[in-house]
Amino acid sequence: MNTLPLPLDGITVVAVEQAVAAPFATRQLADLGARVIKVERPDGGDFARGYDTAARGLASHFVWCNRGKESLAVDLKDPRGLAVVRELVAGADVFVQNLAQGAAARLGLDAASLCAAHPRLVAVDISGYGADGPYAHKRAYDMLVQCEAGLVSVTGTADRPVKAGIPAADIAAAMYAFSGVLAALLRRANTGRGGPVEVSLLDALAEWMGHPLHQGTHGSAPPARTGLAHSVIAPYDAYPTADGEQVLLSVQNDREWRRLAEQVLGRPELADDPDFATNAARTANRERTDEAVGRGLAGLTGREALAGLEAAGIACARLNTVADVAAHPQLAARDRWREVGTPVGPLRALLPPITLPGSEEPRMGAVPALGEHTDALLRALGMTDEQTSALRRDGVIV
After folding, report:
1. Would you say the C-alpha torsion 217, 218, 224, 225 has a positive or negative sign?
2. Angle (deg, nearest 10), helices 201-208 and 168-191
3. CA separation for the pair 68, 181 (Å, rounded)
4. Beta strand 246-250 with 315-318: parallel, antiparallel or unpaired?
């Protein structure tokens, strides 16, 4: 059987992007075969390049979000630099930007303006809070949007709210931008017209808050912060074992509780005890339930606890560290790791989660150095060496 090409092979994306939301969206497009031209400032480029030096001297956020792209370092404030980007957009299928609110419109690079000029173009505006409304021009960093969207209010312990340990608002917006591009490209295939796509971090993360929103706005109290526990299910938490590991388990129904009590905890009397026999009773007596489970697991090693829980058909997991995930046996067994080229040499990276059996493997291209592809891109537009030298001398490109 012939191998199918990647679904976005032949699609060209131009992105004026920075930080996480837009770069992560366009990285998904690159992985699926699109050519992504990343437009960066000449004076340092995407500021995510400077977040840290954790990836062997490179910024971990940048390595994560920018593989498989071509870097064009050009000053958009100079008319000559803006003209270069406009010419690239004229030949592109998709344009993505997440500049500060109003900046793209001042440059004529907002989705509405570009789609009016290029009807087949799919143009994406990613913003913090949307194009209008009282928050439109408010600064929108991930942690701030997590707070505004209420995620922090339901994350953490009873005593202390905490933000998610990953940039949840950025990732949410990125994935809706990614799926929005795919939807618009499908519409273009059917109608011949692309059109604007708008995504805001607040809208994206507020959608992810659907369960707490429905619970808290239709007559009930919103879910309480319970750490690793569940607000309406017990037992559902992490429990220490004899060797210091933390084992998580979740009992979803009373049949599972019986198996847990009889086969793992060694206390069959708990299965019929009215204080524990139903989930409502266990939740009402959460402290005693957790004490009983904790006492039963405390005499076992983590390996023994997991084996017993698995044998009893109880959902369970280890509380893994980042290092544990990097060495996870399931990821290794499914051959999920690859090497990606970078300016400091190959770095290990996970295959994207979308698997397309029968297709080419995702195109996990190299992470570009700042301006690595500037000269090649300008030559492809017909510029001479003298013209590019003049632009470089004037600081318009690097």
Report:
1. negative
2. 100
3. 18
4. antiparallel
170 is catalytic: yes
Closest by CA position to 10, among listed 198, 195, 189:
189
List C-alpha distances in Å: 8 to 27, 30, 265, 368.
12, 8, 53, 20
Q: In the predicted model, what is the mean pLDDT of residues 11-36?
A: 98
Give the model confidence (pLDDT) of 88-128 as tens digits.
Answer: 999 999 999 999 999 999 999 999 999 999 999 999 999 99
Cα–Cα distance measured from residue 113 to residue 92, given in angstroms and rounded to the nearest whole number: 15
CA gap 252, 341 in Å, rounded: 44
Q: Answer for the pair 111, 123: CB distance below 8 angstroms, yes or no.
A: yes
CB 46 within 8 A of CB 20: no
Give me the pLDDT at residue 389, please. Answer: 97
- Given 170, 203, 254, 394, which residue is catalytic? 170
Angstrom distance (rounded) from CA 293 to CA 295: 5
List the beta bridge partners of residue 239: 247
- DSSP secondary-structure letter at 222? P
**Is the sign of the CA dihedral 107, 109, 113, 117 positive or negative?**
positive
Neighbour count for residue 144 (Cβ, 10 Å): 18
Max Cα–Cα distance, the chain, nearest Å: 87
End-to-end CA distance of the chain: 45
C-alpha dist (Å) from residue 3 to 28, 182, 334, 357, 362: 20, 21, 20, 9, 13
Q: Per residue in 52-67, pLDDT tens?
A: 999 999 999 999 999 9
pLDDT per residue as tens digits for the range 362-377 = 999 999 999 999 999 9
- The tens digit of pLDDT for each residue in 179-223 reads 999 999 999 999 999 999 999 999 999 999 998 999 888 877 888
Count of Cβ atoms closer than 10 Å to residue 81 Cβ = 22
Q: Which residue has the tokens 């017993």?
A: 308
pLDDT given for residue 1 in this prediction:
66
Would the CA dihedral through 365, 372, 88, 172 be positive or negative?
A: positive
